[in-house]
Every structure is written in C-alpha cells, then in structure tokens.
Design goal:
Largest sheet of chain B: 5 strands, antiparallel
Number of helices of chain A: 4
Number of strands of chain A: 5
Shape of chain A: elongated
Distance between the termini of chain A: 18 Å
Strand order of the largest sheet of chain A: 1-3-4-5-2
Largest sheet of chain A: 5 strands, antiparallel
Distance between the termini of chain B: 12 Å
Helix content of chain A: 10-25%
Order of helices and strands of chain A: EHHHHEEEE
Structural class of chain B: alpha+beta
Number of helices of chain B: 5
Structural class of chain A: alpha+beta
Order of helices and strands of chain B: HEHHHHEEEE
Strand order of the largest sheet of chain B: 1-3-4-5-2
Strand content of chain B: 25-35%
Shape of chain B: elongated
Helix content of chain B: 25-40%
Oligomer: heterodimer
C-alpha cells in the first residue's frame, strides 16, 4: 500500500502493457463518442485520420485503468482535483499495445489538512513503437501514512 | 444546392468567440457509475456505497472520467442534431476533426448517484492551425452544473474545425 510519503519527487512508476482491440474501441465510441472515425474504418472521415482511431476519452479512461492497476487501487488515493494539461498526440488504433510511466514532479503536504498531501505527476502513455500517444500532468491527493503527525 | 450567401460555409467560420450553448443533460444512476468504474476506474469510492461512505466523498461518486465521457456523448448527440437541422435547410455539412487535448480540467465537486448535470459550452478562442492547412482550432470552456445549481466540473477543450468547404 502506497501513501503520500512514498511519492517522492523523481519516482517513476511503470504502467503494464495494455492491448487495445477494435471491438472495445467501437464499443466505447458507440456509447460515449459516436463520431464516424471512432466507429467505422470505411467512413469518409476515417480516411482523413488514416483509419479507425480510438476516442481520446477512451484512451484517457484506459490510462485511468492502467494507473489503477499499477498503483492507485493499492494506495491511499483521495481522488484528483483535475488535470492541468492533457495532449492526445498520436491516434490509438486497433491492435495497439499501450504502456507508460508516471513520474512524480512534486509532492507537498497540505497546509490546511496535514493528514494528506498533493502529488503532481507527469504521465506518458506510449504505443508499441515507443511513440507518446498521450501525456498529461495532474495532481492527485493521497492520505499520509503518519496521519498528519510527521 | 448552395448555401445562402449570408451563411458561412465552414465549421470554423460558423463558430464565433462568445457563442454559448447548452448541449444536454444527464442523470447518473448508481448502476452506470459502478459499471464505468468497474471497467476503467476501480477505486472503491466509485464502486461500493459502504466504502464511499467512509471516504472523503461521503457517498458513491462517479469517476471523473465518467463525467468527461458523458460530456462527449451529449456533445456529439447535440452536434448531430444541429447538423441534421442544417442539412434540412440545405446548408453544407460542417466538418470537425479530432481534439488535440484540453487544459484546466477541474473536478470541483463529486457527482453522486441521482445527480443531474447540465453541460454548457462557451467558445473562448479560435485560430488557424499552423501544422494542418485547411483546419482551425476552436477552444471552448465547458461547464457542468448539477440540479442544485452548483458548478461541479469545468474544462477548456480544443477541437479541429475545417476552414474550407466540403
């Protein structure tokens, strides 16, 4: 179990590989983002983006699942207030395998609530060719192991 | 059939800074909150009422990525309806491309089971793309307000919009 104290600046956490199938790209898009280039290789709009691509919101949801499996579920996470910046840099396509890293940029204890701390991350999601498909920076809140009595 | 001379023909020209439109609302059920969380964000406060009661959220809370997915679902449905209306008026199709990303996303308050969020876009900026001729980038600030009038979510997103016709 990881607590606030374990996320020291410079710490790099690794995300396990995640294969992305055509069926799940289409299923997510059908429910949440039914634009032609997320649903149908043959759509004229898909030609402009080189074929079927995953919804960016699907990629961010997959990223969430990857960080849950890597460390969030087994941590003292108290959620996140938001995302500073997120870039969808390259399309994610059927058959891609995503992996990535989460680097701790900064960690500081909350002044008003010393029982928790704010950890600022840069996350990078890469494909099987090593290309960054998405990166983001965001703060995540974690309870402190010491309960606010350092 | 050609568009009336007064109607801008491209998606980029049709959008103006200062435009504001409410594009939909959605009520989050406990069942769908848990279903999304099980697939994408299996933290206990998104999955289980008892665990959520002991968490900082106090009650079952939707994954923040569930809120963004619902935002996209409502926006696509709204734009599809608007384009159908435009087509019925004989206006040319508007072409939007993918989004390069977003800034300043804020999950301000939790979204609980039974909450209804209403989403609004405000166009805040537009510029021609340097890397993609024929396309511009439109930026919009999206906010979601719950049934108590509280703003629970905001984000500034960006999307490619075609600058030419067809």
């Amino acid at each position: 179990m990881r607590y606030f104290e374990d996320f020291t600046p410079g710490t790099v956490l690794t995300l396990a590989p995640r294969h992305v199938t055509r069926a799940e790209i289409i299923a997510f898009a059908a429910e949440f983002d039914p634009q032609p280039f997320h649903l149908d290789e043959q759509a004229p709009a898909s030609a402009l983006v080189g074929g079927l691509i995953a919804s960016g919101w699907h990629v961010s949801a997959l990223f969430m699942r990857m960080i849950c499996d890597a460390f969030m579920v087994d941590s003292s996470s108290m959620g996140s207030p938001g995302i500073t910046t997120l870039k969808w840099q390259k399309p994610v396509r059927p058959g891609d395998t995503l992996s990535g890293t989460c680097t701790v940029l900064e960690a500081r204890r909350s002044k008003s609530r010393p029982e928790m701390g704010i950890v600022r991350f840069r996350h990078e999601v890469v494909n099987q060719s090593g290309e960054i498909v998405m990166w983001l920076e965001n703060p995540i809140l974690f309870a402190a192991r010491d309960g606010g009595q350092p | 059939m050609s568009a009336p001379a007064s109607t801008p023909s491209s998606a980029y020209e049709r959008v103006a800074v200062g435009d504001v439109y409410q594009f939909g609302s959605h009520t989050f059920s406990a069942e769908e909150i848990k279903r999304f969380a099980k697939a994408f964000d299996p933290q206990t406060f998104h999955l289980d009422e008892e665990a959520a009661a002991k968490s900082q959220f106090g009650k079952l809370a939707a994954s923040g990525w569930h809120t963004t997915a619902v935002m996209m679902k409502l926006r696509v449905a709204y734009l599809t309806r608007e384009m159908e209306k435009a087509a019925a008026r004989g206006e040319p199709a508007l072409r939007f491309g993918p989004s390069p990303g977003f800034d300043d996303l804020k999950w301000i308050l939790p979204v609980h089971a039974g909450d209804t969020l209403a989403f609004t876009d405000a166009i805040v900026a537009k510029r021609h793309s340097k890397s993609r001729p024929g396309w511009g980038i439109v930026s919009m600030m999206t906010t979601a307000v719950n049934q108590r009038g509280e703003t629970v979510f905001s984000v500034t997103g960006h999307v490619f919009a075609a600058t030419g016709e067809g």
